[in-house]
Each structure stands twice: as structure tokens, then as C-alpha cells.
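User: Please write out a complete single-protein record containing the residue sequence and its fold in C-alpha cell form, without commentary.

AI:
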Amino acid sequence: MLYPILGVLGILLCIIVYKYTEEKIVQARTHVVQIKFTDALRAVAKNKYFWIISLASWIGFLETAYANIMSWLYNYGGACSGTTFGLIQTLYGNASLWGMLAAPFCIRKWGKKSVLVVTNLFNIAFILMMLLFTDEITYNVTILLIMSCLWLNALMGSFAHILNPSIQADIRDYQQYKTGERIDGMFSAVNTIGTVLALATSSVLPFIYEKNGITEENAKIVTSNPEILNRVLDPENGTTVGSLLADQLAKGQNNYENAYSALYDPDILMSLIKVLIIVAAVGAFMNVVPYFWYDFNERKQKSVVRVLKVRALFEDYGNGIKNDAQLVEGIDIIRKARELASKAPFAENKKDYKKIKNKKERKATIEIDEEIEISKFVCAELDKFSTDVFKYQYNVQKGIYSAGLQGLKLMTLDEIKAEMANANAMPKSTKEQKEIRKFAIEVARNKKSACKALNKYFANEELVQPDFAELEKIFDIEDACDDKLKELYLALKDAKKAKDKAKIKSLKADIKAYEAKKVEAHKASKAEMDRHAYFARAAKPYLDAEKLVKQEENYKHFDEIAEMYEEAKARHEKAMAEAEAAALKEKEEQAAYAAQLKAEKAAKKAAKKK
């Protein structure tokens, strides 16, 4: 009876979450997102935070070794009655709820890394705490104490249900910041490595079971021991080990030789439980260790997102695309960054904040220091072309860009191999030298991939860059269809209220026509995006060079963009006010319609009563 109720409630909650989830991927509108599979794979492989998170899950597989402890205590140890065990399972399952509810508040207060590390350390403590209650089995006591430890462990573990998706979202922002590409789907592909590791490690626990007594030989000895066969499992109904095994045999289930029947011996059972507790604690410790190297905190994530917004602003400006909301936000970010970057933060470490006794002042100081740190990060992005590393990168990319697209067609594999050899031979003593060498190797590798793509897609045709204007036209058609459909659906709603059948029929026909038009536009955009994608693979060295050269050029045009600010802000505020007024009007109409229905229902009810 409860399952369908909870199922429906769950669906409703999913709809609410979907409705109020805001898309926060930051990209230029003209950005082509389709890239070669191997390039995406290579890009993910360089994301250190992805490997930290993955490594934590891969080497922490032993943590779940405690999973069977409670069921073994009940089934083989006779630690409680069936009714008590059912209650224990219900209470244990309830632990996850509270951790999931508390996680957002804790993350907001202490940050993802701190919450993740602390909850994992608590997990280790609560797992080890079970050792205090594994000397002997006391009916209804031992299993409740074990359950209490596992309940606390599950409470801490449930924080991960909120933490893991949040951290995964952060490392995708970092990926886009480092490579310029949003390749979320590729993370799942690389994660399949974990499946292979799971297969490789799946025999570890069975090996531990066997080494600690779960064998057919031990089962035969245990199930032929009169003392164990006469051991009472459930005092309430007098069930013994012998009577239980005999009843199972009568039903066609011979457990006298089942390896797990060795657990009916309390010495084997409790000894193995102790081993599993220690193994689980080791697994939990291995799981948390990699996170000590995870330093992508909330400030860095905010810094990365702001840089992505700045890059998107300049990229779209360079491509002739202007968006009022994007322009206003981008200019505000840059102006604020320039204003705060020169200031020194109040605190050098977290302890300094404790000196401020007033909580509001302390919070305000922390926020200002955060803005100063983020501002320095944003300014470092804007000023990066003055550094030695980016000067080298710019000079290399300038050469590729100057050679043009036809320069790519003149490349030979022998020349590229020689360039790769020279890049590998470059010095790598200092941090700057390592970055320059890494960049040179990457350029040579991209040239090699481009050479193969050229032979595949453009061997017998000219390498010409597709026009973004065509893509923009299609996007405009899709946007216009969306706006028109919204308008038609609102009109249809009014027509249904007025019960105007002719208008309803007409509006439905219009809706069908615009939906078909939108589908066609979507197909056209997909085909055009494919054209861009094939070109992007073949011309990647040139496009990378163009991107860097144009970015350097666009960053010089901040003043020109800033001149558009006031007009863009006025248009943006007007559009926001109109949207807010439309939303308010729709809300009022919905309230009026609900009131009308309520009045009609009340009138019908009164008439019926009369």
C-alpha cells in the first residue's frame, strides 16, 4: 500500500527538482561542442580532480566489507527475533534521510572538501566502534549496539549522495576552464575503468571469507557438532540450529554442506566479523586519503565560473554575437575584479577570522576576502598574455594562424614526428619550462590528429570554415518557435476557459505547425553542427591558434565592449521587467481561474444541497 504512494510522491518531488534546477553551464553561443572521442579522452585524463575522486572510489572498495554483519548476526548468530530484526532494518534504512537533509547546510557552512573528509573520518571511527561489541552474542543487545554504530556510519555515508554530484559538477567546470571544452559525457566513458577494477577486486572479500572459516569442510564439521546443532537461535519459539537445518532440508535445501553454515559456530562468526570490521575501516581510510589532495574549493570553483563567463563574453564579441544579459554580467565581473584585485585580504588564514567577535562583521570580512581572491584570479586571466608561458604560446599559435588553413594541408607526418621529437627534448627543470614543453607536445599531437582528419574528410575538397551566421540563423528560428509556442499555449489556455471550440482547433493547428517547424530547425542545426564538427577536427591546430590569437586581440577591446554597457543594461532591465510583469500577470490569471473554479464548485454544491 505504501509503495505506490511513495512512488507517486517521488515522481512529484522529481518534477519539483527539475522545475527549479537552473542550468549553469557557461559557454559562448557560437561554441562548437562536438570534438573527437580520443581528444576528449585525453583531455579528461589530464583532469587531476577527476582522478582524485575516481581513485578514492576505486581503492576504497573494502569499505563495504561490513555489509553482511547484521544479517549474519540474525541468521547465523540468533542475535534477535525476526520481528526485532525487521525493526532494526527499518531504523537502519532511515539513517540516510537525515544525512541528505543536513548535507546542503553543512556544505554551505564548511565547504565540500571539509564535509567529505570529516564524514569519512567519522565513518572510520563508527566502523571501528563495532569492535567493542563483538566479543560475544547477547540476545537483542549485541545486534542493537552494532546497528547503532552502522546507523551512525550510514548517517555519515549519506552525505555523499549530495556531495558526489556536487563535486562532479565542479570538476566539469574545471575541465572546461583548463581545456576550453565541455565534455561531460566523456567522464562516464573514462569511469568504465572502475568497472574493470571492480572485476579485478571482486575476489578479495570471498578470499577473506574463505581464509577466516567459510568453507565446505568447516560447514560439515559445524553442522555435525551436537553442541552447535542444539544451540537455540530464537528463544521465543525454541528454534535450534538443528531444527532449522532439518526444516530447510525437508524443503529441498541442503545447507548442511553449505560453506556459509560454518557461521553457525559463534567462534567462527564473531572472529570473521572482527576481521571484516578491520578490513572495512582500512577501506574507509583508503577512500578518504586521496581527498587530502583535493584543493578545488568553493572559491576556486567560483573563480573558474567567472573566468568562463569572461571568456564567453569576449568569444561571442569576437564572433559578432551580442547578448545584453551576458554583456552586463561580464562587464560587472571585470570592473569588480579590477577594483578589488589590488587590495590585500584581511586574513592570511582561517584563524584570523576568529579574532572578529561580531558574527555579521566576520561573515562580511570573509565574503570580501573571497571576492578579493576571486578578483585576483579573474585579473590573472585577463593579464595572462604578459606572462612568459603565454608569450611563448602566443608566438607559436601566431605562426600557425598566419599560415592559415592551407598551411595545415601542407603538413607531412614526417615533419610532425620531428616536431614531436623536438618538443619531447625541451628542458623541464622549472615549472615554466614544464608548461612550455607540455604545450609544445600538445601542439604536435594535435597536428598529427588533424593530419589524419584532413585525409579522411577533406582529401578531395577545400578546407573552408563554415559560417557561424548560418548556425545563428537556425538558432534564431528555434528561439522564435519557442517564443511563439509559449504565446500560443497561453492563448489556448484562455480559449479553453472561454470554451471557444473554433479557436481551440485553430490554435492547436498553429501549435502543431510551429512544433514541426522547430523540429525541422533542430534537424538543420544538428546537420550544421556536424559540418562544424568535421571541420573542427581537421582544423584543430589552426582553430586553437585562432582562438588564442583572437582571445589576445579581444582582451584588448574591453573599452569598446564597456561602451555598450549602459545601453545593454537598460535593454536588459526592460526585458527583465517585462518578463516579470508577464509572469505576474500569468500568476494572477491562474489565481483568478482557481477562484472561479472554486466558486463554481461551491455554487454546484449549494445547489445540490438545496
